[in-house]
Write a structure and sequence with these properties.
The chain is of the alpha/beta class. The protein contains 16 helices and 10 strands. The chain folds into 2 domains: about 20-110 and about 255-330, D-Maltodextrin-Binding Protein, domain 2 (3-Layer(aba) Sandwich); about 110-235, D-Maltodextrin-Binding Protein, domain 2. The protein starts with a helix and ends with a helix. GO terms for molecular function: transmembrane transporter activity.
């Protein structure tokens, strides 16, 4: 009986805490790549300072985090979930009312494509098209064979090696004199762009966003003139055994904020913030470049973003919440 009477005030206190808008303890997956870590730190600060949550960052990665949220109901929030990696499981989690899709972390989705430097397009606008690139193939000097042109593909062993190789074949780039170069690593690929930029040389190859590289070096995605054929991309372009790939632009990858149903139901105001919090790739590219240049982790980059870009985050929250966050920033 004594234990019942001791527990009763705690239960009543908990009820009042939820009634006054406090969202209580919240766990947020801090994924092991820069953009996800930045968003996780932003969510933690805003939920704590703006909504009174007791927000904790926990280590995360796509598959383990998604599985844990479905099976165990934790963590409460995955700020940057590349949903296509486990589409069926996540959809089932939503259908069973275990999860909710709050919104898109990246409003224009994860982006892939074949790119050329902005300065090439400034000199010749046709370089923004595959026809212009093919016509000027001789500009793209091969590092080892003067008789060939260079196309930098995705590093061996990466999933994107399959799609970039299939599109190289579909576009008949070999017939135009291009050689598909394996850069050896992500660093090798980004280094080839940096080298070309330093010399203002021609460069043509595969890359993706959001990345610090596309924040530092202004690149233009080459238009294949085909539009996006998502069914073809899924059926063949992304498959290793695709024998006759067809030309298609890369479909954007769905990048979402996922929460548990329990969190969304318990904390509707905090959940509403997550439905509005979203970044464009162009802005995330710039933020990632800043992080790399300043050797900043997610926490430092969070303070930079909230301090320097109030016009970006204030529309995500109410005026009252914005004032709380601004006051907390001033006290850092």
């Amino acid at each position: 009986m004594k234990s019942i009477f001791i527990a009763l005030p705690l239960a009543v206190a908990s009820t009042f805490a939820q009634a006054d808008g406090s969202c209580g303890k919240v766990t947020i997956a801090d994924m092991n790549w820069s953009s996800a870590s930045l968003i996780a730190n932003i969510d933690q600060f805003i939920l704590e300072k703006g909504y009174g949550c007791d927000a904790e960052l926990v280590p995360g990665d796509t598959m383990p985090t998604g599985t844990s949220m479905i099976e165990k109901g934790e963590p409460d929030i995955a700020p940057e979930m590349w949903s296509n990696a486990m589409r069926k499981a996540l959809d089932k989690g939503v259908e069973e009312k275990r999860l909710r899709f709050a919104g898109n972390s990246l409003s224009d989705g994860g982006e892939e494509g074949f790119w050329v430097p902005q300065y090439m397009v400034d000199k010749d606008p046709t370089m923004a098209t595959i026809e212009g690139v093919v016509k000027n193939a001789a500009l793209f000097k091969h590092p080892e064979d003067p008789e060939k042109s260079a196309f930098y593909g995705c590093p061996a062993g990466w999933n994107c090696q399959i799609s970039s190789g299939n599109l190289f074949k579909a576009l008949k780039l070999s017939d135009a004199g291009f050689d598909l170069i394996d850069p050896g690593s992500g660093a090798g690929l980004s280094g080839s762009i940096a080298k070309a930029y330093a010399r203002e040389e021609a460069w043509f190859g595969y890359y993706w966003a959001p990345t610090a590289v596309l924040g530092k070096y202004k690149m233009v995605k080459v238009d294949f003139g085909s539009g996006v054929n998502k069914e073809e991309f899924i059926r063949c372009t992304s498959k290793e055994d695709c024998l006759e790939p067809k030309v298609t632009m890369y479909p954007p990858s769905l990048v979402q904020t996922v929460t548990t149903e329990a969190f969304a139901s318990k904390s509707p105001e905090a959940y509403d913030y997550l439905t509005k919090r979203s970044f464009k790739n162009s802005q995330m590219n710039e933020l990632l470049a800043w992080m790399e240049d300043n050797q900043a982790d997610g926490d430092v980059a969070m303070e930079h973003f909230l301090t320097e870009y109030p016009e970006s985050w204030k529309p995500w929250v109410s005026k009252e919440v914005a004032e709380k966050i601004s006051k907390a920033l001033a006290n850092l």
